[in-house]
Amino acid sequence: MNPAAPSDFVLWLTLAVMWLPFISFLVIFFITRTRLALSLAVSVSCASISLLAAWYLLLGLPATHPPVEFKLLWMAGAEARISYGFLLDPLSRLMLCIVASISFLVQVYSLGYMAGDEGMAKYYSFLSLFAWSMISLVVAPGLLQLYVFWELVGLSSYLLIGFWHHKFSASEAGKKAFVMTRLGDLGFFLGIIVLLLHLGDLSILKLNAQAAAQLSAGLVTASAVLIFMGVVGKSAQFPLLTWLPDAMEGPTPVSALLHSATMVAAGVYLVSRLFPFYAASPDALAVVLAIGTITMLLSSTMAMVARDIKQVWAFSTVSQLGFMLMGLGAGSYFAGVFHLTTHASFKALLFLCSGVFIHHFGSNDMYEIAKNGGRRLKVPMITITIAGAALAGVFPAAGFFSKESIMGALAELPNPGWLAAGLAGAAMTAYYTFRLLFIVWFPRKIETPQHQENGHGDHAAHSSFGYWAMGVPLIILAGFALVLGFFGDWLLNFIHWGRPPEFFHHVWLAPVSLLLVGCGIGLAWLEFGRRKAAQAGFLSRLPRVEALFANRWYMDAFYRRMVDYVVYGFFSRLFTLNDRRVVDGGVDGVCRATVGGGWLLSFLQSGLLQYNLFTMVLIIALVGLYFLVMH
Amino acid sequence: MTAAFPYLSLIMLAPAVGMVIILFLPHDSKRAVRWVSLISAAVSLLTTLYVWQAYDRAAGGLQFVERTLWVKSLGIYYYLGVDGINLPLVLLTSIVLFTGVWTMWDLQHRVKEFFALMLLMVVGVYGVFMALDLFFLFVFYDVSLFPMYPLIAIWGSTRKEYGALKLTLYLLAGSALVLPGILYIYFKSGLFTFDLVMLSKAGLDPDVQYLGFFLFLFGFGVLAGLWPFHTWSPVGHVAAPTAVSMIHAGVLMKLGAYGVLRVGMYLCPQGLVEWSPLFAILATVGIVYGAFVGLAQTDLKYVIGYSSVSHMGLVSLGLATMTLGGVSGAVFQMFAHGIMTALLFSSVGHIYDSTHTKMIPELGGMAKVEPRASFFFILAALAGIGVPCLASFWAELLVFINGFKVYPVLGALAISGLVVSALFMLRVVQKTFYGPKNEKYAECADMRLAMIWPRAILAGTILLFGLLPRLMLDTINVGVAPLVELFK
Amino acid sequence: MNSLTVYLFVALLIFCIGMFGLLQRRSLIGMIISIELMLNAAAINFMAFNRFLAPDPSVGQIMVLFIMGIAAAEAAIALSLILALFRKLRSINIEHARDLKG
Asked: Residue B20 and residue B176: Cα distance in Å, rounded?
């Protein structure tokens, strides 16, 4: 289908969504940085206008609105023409809305969370930069523009993760995130170049519609897998998943943004964006499915033993992203996108709730929070439970429906192993989610209010404004986490332009998965919830397994060693030595040889001028003689 | 097309006149010396901007041409002109000169001699970029090299005599290959002219081109930091004073690449076709190697020096692809890298002046102590690792695409260098600017407001051409397109 | 006897005498005088060629005038150098000026 040009109204509206955050970034960073209130006003107002426009684009236009495209030539090399513009189709409209909403809510929330931080204005400018790059990524009409903003998303998350860079761990985490995603991006970039050299045009619509016909099957698979490497990096999939848990060194609202709608969602978004292209290659889809499954299982095990509240959510993000990729890999576009949508709402909520606790108690440790009376904070406590239920897939929260659709897609596959893995993952998700919830709900020992007051005193920002700035986004998100699930059919119609493919509901699937979820919750109750529970998981009886899980399957250690021994220890050291010894040594050798030669020749110099003259005359005479004889 | 007014001569002679005036100023009038240098640099910059704006991109080709017979019997012309290839480089020189002079405002030691030598060097640089006569090109080439020795040996730091000597010897060795190359072409062409444009149309014998390109490749390649002739560059950068590092890494290294491009590739296109595999291999090794060696350095300036080796490898790779995109990317990379490195050295210069150290382990937490200097350094470092919307991203993109197209294996290797360079730049940023601050330097002063401006100009240039790459690329493409035809 | 060869032989003779003197004399003044002889031999050659071969007689004369000028300048410079050397070494014997020994 040929995309139409947008009407003027849609054009300006979309440009507003895209550019307001960037304008806000520029204004804050270069002009108003020293004036906090003004900066906040600029940032939040830009975000809210952008939000309204995004919602209008989602709901105000009819669902069957044909895709519109708008392009300007951004850079023209001979082979690579990068256009800058936007492509509005159901998927990008949906994602645009998610990004704008989450970033707006995070901005509002940060008003309370970051109050009193000396770098607050800078923080807001980075948030705006983040929103800008993600929005431009989402609406990108071509792969090259998508790549450009893909990298910018990486940069902004580097800046935000390392926002408190005076802490060593924060700057280290930022660096790790950047370098590890860069590693995946290599594949992405190569994939883009391969496509570019063979197709000459990287427009997403054309790619989806025609690539399969124009390229050989092997080439499609190769480029799809290469591009998927970028997704592996960005969405923290196996084997590049270890940067994401470290990324929680950033301020908690940043984690919420990073984990729900922006950074990591970009990877899954890319696969959905190119879904018809991927669907043309069953092998590529199989890779997506396999990587998704491995990641999902691995990270669920890691989440089961983590003590740090944010780390649990981080691992759960990794595993939920694995779920989405499983859905996409199983061939169900809708399932992946639906889970992406619902996940954005409840994962943002989980992090924002945790942020309230962390802010309040000054600790990330879930036992610590429980001990200090976390459950006294009513709003976050209730909302975190809703979000947890959604994450675990409890009816009627949103996660239940989207996970159901993924399971449905998995059940379609000939190999029942995938479905079994998915169900096992769902059970584990329920277990680790409720483990955390029970620990916080039912602390073993409730501290005296006295102790709590100390906790309060540490932070300046406990004004009622701060409280509500943080509370309102929680309530809004909780509403979404509750009701989004019921919009599945609407979404199905929407993203398929009102022509949904036949979709199978397996009647037996819902009870089975609910039963497994129930088992997970039950186990968590037995171990952490009930009055006599020791609050130690069954894994603590298997110390070696626990250590394996807690150390992230030793992946970090492996990477650390690789970097230390191979990069620093081998290549870097070897090349440096080569530089000193061989290259410089060679040059110095030439110099020494020259000096030595001069020293030898100097013996010919007697210092008596007339000897030199005599030699000269002699040689001229000989030359003259030579010519005389020759002629 | 001949220019009505000699704009190009004005660009080149403004620093020369400035130098002469400085020589006649009394020794103790430091203020006057600075102002004269700054004004002459500003005249060059403004004229360059005018030429940049007035260059007719639709017509293309050489413009603002000035051509006067100099020595008839030898066929030497005073021949200046700009096209899409050297116009960006002239702009680069003007920007770096202007900001460099400004950066050195606080210099106290032998001010007069410093600025006089610096202006002399820049006259040579302008000459090389704009001259279209081989004789003048070579003369200017050497004029731009020799002031380097006193500039480093007198005002430098860290093993300055060694660095200065090494640098001078290397570069003179390079020009010892260039001169025979020029004479070889001169005699073999049978035209008895040094006019580059005429020589390029001479249709030289492929064997002549083969040898000629070899001489030019390694002669100019030394100055371009081509691996394995690169070790002078980090040592020289480290030893040189701030502005000299800026001009040296920012502009002088480009002279080498420009020489390969303008002399080697214009005169001996068939030679390039023959030598391009070797050229590409050396370039790729340089990219990866420079990044790995940079990873092990503990001196800020060494790190930048090796990053320059890596980035100049990209330029070489782009040239070796012989495609429109690749060569345009290479020219763009010369410009972008010049600005970026100048900014890096300029920021490090401030840090060194205030803390008297540039050893990475001794610094730390500088972002809190000197936020302005840190901002500029980090911005330039991000440009260096190819963050989009900063100028060098586009250049790298073009080079990588075409590198991969022409040499798939080498291209993929070069692309993997991106990860290493990200690792080493971010490591430096982390160790130097992040983390807890070193109390010893907690009281060090940040940049004065006036000293922000030169850095801001550089940073603004990076951002401007990063957000609007067509401003630069459309010009470059005009110049490169006819060149690429030669390789067909 | 009025042929080119005769003039050339005379010039050659003078040149050889000058060269011999230059190589043999150890006194700097003697060496300068020898150099003058050699220059004059060259001048004679010029005049001879000019007289017998050249269509335009003025060229050789101009060259000779140049040689005379250069000879004068050279003598002046050389004498001043010798004076400077004498002040340093208290001698004009070339064997005392052997600082260039390697």
From this structure: 29
Say what angle helices A252-260 and A120-138 make with each other, to 10 degrees: 0
CA angle A579, A584, A586 (to 5 degrees): 120
- Residue A396 CA to its chain's centroid (Å): 28
Distance of CA B467 to the CA centre of its chain: 22
Three-state secondary structure string covering A307-337: CEHHHHHHHHHHHHHHHHHHHHHCCCHHHHH
Q: Helix (H, G, I), strand (E, B), or coil: what is residue B237?
A: helix
- Per the prediction, chain B carries an average pLDDT of 87
Smallest CA–CA distance, residue C10 to chain A, in Å, is 19
- Copy the structure tokens of residue B60: 């293309």
Rounded Cα–Cα distance for residues B466 and B471 (Å): 10
- DSSP β-ladder status, A81-88 and A68-76: antiparallel
Out of A62-76, A560-574, B209-223, B392-406, pick the least confident. Answer: A62-76
Closest chain B CA to residue A145:
B388
- The residue count of chain C comes to 102
Which of residues 543 through 602 in chain A touch C, CB cutoff 8 A?
601-602
Does the pLDDT of residue A460 top 50, yes or no? no
Residue A400: per-residue pLDDT: 85
A81: phi then psi, degrees, rounded to nearest 5: -115, 115
pLDDT tens digit sequence for A169-206: 888 888 888 888 888 888 899 998 888 888 877 888 88
d(CA A529, CA B65): 86
Ranges of beta strands (E only) in A512-608 are none
Asked if C85 is an interface residue toward chain A (Cβ–Cβ < 8 A), one would say no
Distance set, CA A280 to CA A214, A221, A224, A406 (Å): 11, 8, 10, 20
Name which residue leads in pLDDT, B354 or C55.
B354
Q: How many CB pairs under 8 A join A and B?
A: 138
The two three-digit tokens of residue B407, written as one number: 């040499």
Beta carbons within 8 Å of B466's beta carbon, 6+ residues apart: B383, B388, B389, B390, B391, B392, B393, B394
Q: What is the Cα–Cα distance from A103 to A253, expressed in whole angstroms?
A: 9
Contact list in B for residue A152 (CB cut-off 8 A) is 387-389
- Give the nearest partner residue to B231 out of A77, A190, A579, using CB atoms: A579
Q: Which residues of A touch C95 (CB under 8 A)?
A: 608
What is the distance in angstroms between the Cα of C99 and the nearest Cα belonging to chain A? 6
Q: What tokens appear for C41 in the block?
A: 């031999």
Closest residue of chain C to A615, computed from CA coordinates: C23
H or E segment to which residue B403 belongs: helix B391-406
**Given this model, what pLDDT does residue A603 score?**
80
Residue A434 structure tokens:
């409720």
Closest Cβ–Cβ partner in B292, B412, B473 for A190: B412
Q: Is the pLDDT of residue B276 over 80?
A: yes
Q: Please state, rounded to an integer, the average pLDDT across all residues of chain A.
A: 83
Helices A168-199 and A204-214, axial angle in degrees (round to 10)? 50
**A72 Cβ under 8 Å from any chain C Cβ:** no
Q: What is the pLDDT of residues C83-102, one digit of tens each?
A: 998 998 888 888 887 776 75
Q: Is A611 helix (H, G, I), strand (E, B) or coil?
A: helix
What pLDDT score was predicted for residue B47?
A: 92
Q: Is some CB atom of chain C closer than 8 A to the CB atom of A618?
A: no
Tokens representing B363 are 């610094």
Q: What percent of chain A clears pLDDT 70, i.e. is strictly above it?
A: 93
Question: How many other CB atoms sit within 10 Å of the CB of residue B46?
Answer: 15
pTM (2 decimals)? Answer: 0.86
